[in-house]
Amino acid sequence: MTHVPLHDRPDLQVPGRWLRPGAPGYDTARRIWNGMHDRRPAFIAPCSSPEEVSEALRYAARTGLEITVRGGGHNVAGTAVADGTLMIDLSPLRTVTVDHAARVAQAGGGCLLADLDAATTPHDLACPAGVVSHTGLGGLTLGGGYGWLARKWGLTCDHLLAAEVVLADGSVVEATEDDHADLLWALRGGGGNFGIVTRFTLRLRPVGPVHYHTGVYPLAAAQDALAAYRDFAPSQPDDLHTVGALKHAGTADWIPAELHGRPALFLTAAWFGDPDDGPAHTARLFDTTGPAATLVRRMPYAELQSLGDHGEPAGHRYFTKSCYPTDLTPETAAAFIAAAQEIPSALSSIDFEYLRGAIEHVPEEDSAFPSRGAPYIFTASSQWTDPQQDTPNIAWPRRSIERLAPMCTGGAYVNYLHDEAPGRVLEVYGTHRHARLAAVKKAYDPANTFRRNQNIPPTPS
């Protein structure tokens, strides 16, 4: 494909709502969550219907422009925007409708998680999804979707009942279990490789007040606390989800002053059964680990979903790597702690959690999502603001994952694939699943129009 500066060609007319460099609103529209990616598309096409998405795709095919797709603009790799391309901006598509009786929601392709929660939680319903409410629903769903309810109900992609998809040739199809079932399978974890989803149909689950219990530990006590977490985690019921973080402690009132600003371990448990039963279940963890301080609250589910928002503001610089440890042995725990001791920025964090539960109950054949049986996930997320500090902050997640490699499965979370070596996508999906995805790609996008992502090329002819 060519990279002609089309905005200089008067013979190629574009809709008046499209933005080009220099137009009012262009710089705002091209900006995404991760401040590392300061890129300038040739055009930005805001789309409020599948017909407008079709129009943009057909223009790209006619002119040879490559495309990117922006849902929430939250992917850490910055796949929503690229220099000299046509950015198809789905942010006008944020309508959510809820069928309370059927426990089904229909959500536009540009929705954020906050949009979905705002529409569903007044009905005491939710679609399991993410932990930061300004995350885009589209990217999260297509790449999997870990979140607080994953152990109880499964991933976001497991709740995808149907999808309205604009294909590379501009045609619009509805992928369901009965029609384009192969496409629906691929959309459940195969990433944004197969088309542009303009409407998600999602199964909803009942939610109510959440029993929330968190504790903080000095780093010197982390090895023993992680050993206790290892003993506790596999025995927790699916109504309980416990997560861990290694990061600099903040200055909240409940955190001891001697830990303020210092690397520390946090363990957090959220109970999604009867909230009156929660204290007994979470106490099993904290009674054995001896935290320096704890915070216990009952809160609405919607508040839990937004707890992580303030810690990941738009415009900061981010670099993230993940892996799946096979166990939390003393050696693995020591590697966690060593990584925490090397954190180069006080804004960065290590997150880990015990998975399984409903995640592994979903049959492998029901979705393209890989590594369902992984017991643990480990994520090293750099966050900083000064571009002069890019080198150490990019090196730290890489080094942390390399240290853990002998203790891991070899996979990684699709939504955190970032700056990978050739062949990494194949390694993450595995040979059989990748071949099936490549066959679906050949059927729906044989020219690989959707390639500015964690790309799966079509099966060669």
UniProtKB/TrEMBL annotation:
Show the InterPro entries listed in the entry: BBE, FAD-bd_PCMH, FAD-bd_PCMH-like_sf, FAD-bd_PCMH_sub1, FAD-bd_PCMH_sub2, FAD-linked_Oxidoreductase, Oxid_FAD_bind_N, Oxy_OxRdtase_FAD_BS
The record's annotation in Gene3D superfamilies points to:
3.30.465.10, 3.40.462.20, Uridine Diphospho-n-acetylenolpyruvylglucosamine Reductase, domain 2 (3.30.43.10)
Which top-rank group of organisms is this from? Bacteria
What keywords tag this UniProt record?
Answer: FAD, Flavoprotein, Oxidoreductase
A GO molecular-function annotation: FAD binding
Every copy of the FAD-binding PCMH-type domain together lies at: 36-207
Keyword Oxidoreductase on entry: yes
What cofactor does this one take?
Answer: FAD
Keyword tRNA processing in record = no
* Signal peptide region: none
Family, similarity comment: Belongs to the oxygen-dependent FAD-linked oxidoreductase family.
Q: Which PANTHER family would you find in this protein's record?
A: BINDING OXIDOREDUCTASE, PUTATIVE (AFU_ORTHOLOGUE AFUA_1G17690)-RELATED, FAD-BINDING PCMH-TYPE DOMAIN-CONTAINING PROTEIN
Q: What is the name of this protein? A: FAD-binding PCMH-type domain-containing protein
Upper lineage is: Bacteria, Bacillati, Actinomycetota, Actinomycetes, Kitasatosporales
